[in-house]
Task: structure prediction
Amino acid sequence: MIITENLTYKYEGASVEALKGVSLHIKKGEFVAILGHNGSGKSTLAKHFNALLTPTDGKCVVDGIDTAEESRVFDVRSNVGMVFQNPDNQIVSSVVEEDVAFAPENLGVPPEEIRRRVDDALDVVGMREYAKHASHLLSGGQKQRVAIAGVLAMQPSCIVLDEPTAMLDPRGRKSVLNTLESLHKRGFTIVIITHNMHEATLAERIIIMNSGEIAMSGTPREVYARTEVLTRAGLELPQIAQLMSNLGKQVALTVDEAAAILQKEGCRA
Amino acid sequence: MLRDITLGQYFPRESVIHRMDPRMKIALMTAMISACLIAQNAVEYAILSGFVLAVVLLARVPISLYLKTLKPLAFFIVFTCIINLFSADGEILAQWWIFRITREGITLAGLMMIRVILLVFISSLLTYTTSPIQLTNGLESLMRPLKWVRFPSHDVAMMMTIALRFIPTLIEEADKIIKAQSARGIDFQSGGLIKRIKALVPVLIPLFVSAFHRADELAVAMESRCYRGGEGRTSMIRLRVRAADWLAATVCVALITGLVMI
Result:
């Protein structure tokens, strides 16, 4: 789905590269979390996935299309949808369904088809009943789901979300994460950029970024077992994993799992 | 405070007027306004007022809303009336020093008042019965022929859409900044005009900075959703002029020709 080879990027006027030779491969249908602290290059990397940025050096290929190929930029963008952090700054229209229609309108899709796509997309994120609502009156979580619907209306195969829950309250965060899980079940490739370890646990694979490089990559279990790499990347384990690590036990991803492990050992003692 | 101004003045209702094509509404409104400006005597104004009143009733928007729009204009209306009252020549009814009231003056003042009120009613009719999106769609479609003179009709419509979208967001933001600056001890309430205007500077600067920041992010978000200007763009809402629109147009044209004839 997305392949980068030795991807290097330097912002204009910057002295150091934001990305220093990143090579990764995201498979179709995969749920990947890219984790890193501020300035680790994770957002810069995400912007390459839909050709908002093109590599200074190296390559980024999406579904066989090199993102540097200018004539195919819109093919890349409609295939890899992007959702941003601030829900207010990515909604274009004051009416929900008009906003969802924005992308297919840009792509020149015929009106009846747009109508169908908009209704479908709103159904998927569970916002159909708000179709005619004023977008600014929605809650943060609802706005973010509308933004996801706006991306779905392009019928992409991959959705990249750049810290989609950073500005949301716990409830909004939960509704967005649930939406992501259901999209993953429908076969979408999901890439979530975050600095929240807890969110990353939902993913099948975690990629840890540190100062423009991949520090580590693996399943949440594998990643959480290597505390020293995480600390070096300026990240903290989720509390439950940290607790297990302090106790010298095996890695646990959820509270239930940890409880089961501890109980088993408790019985034995 | 100004939370629900988003949908502009739009007052959603199911009515014949609401269902009309926005382009036809804009065109007919312009025609009616010109008719108001052309009308000369009491008979013509009576016919026009009757017609506008009928349309207002058809639109099923409460009359009190129209009166609310009239309120801020009250001073202006009274002022024009007084000017007209004293400035006409003709049969003198009363005279005091350099002021004199003539019969013609009274009629003129009365007609002037009706004219202004009609203008307000007609323009409110458009904004009350048409959602901002429909309005921008209509304007864009009407401006399309201007492409010949390189007028960027799509860009103008896009700008209007975004402006409408961000007015409430920016108002909310201004509210927050005002509270934050009040918490830091800025006094917005007291002092003379100059002092109060000065107090607004620490509100406006952060507001502008944030607006630019938002514009930046919005541009990236629009780009990532394949925005590339009006070229080859379609629209989900298709504007269609229906039989009812033509009927309305016929009635209006008949009325206006009638007025010009008499």
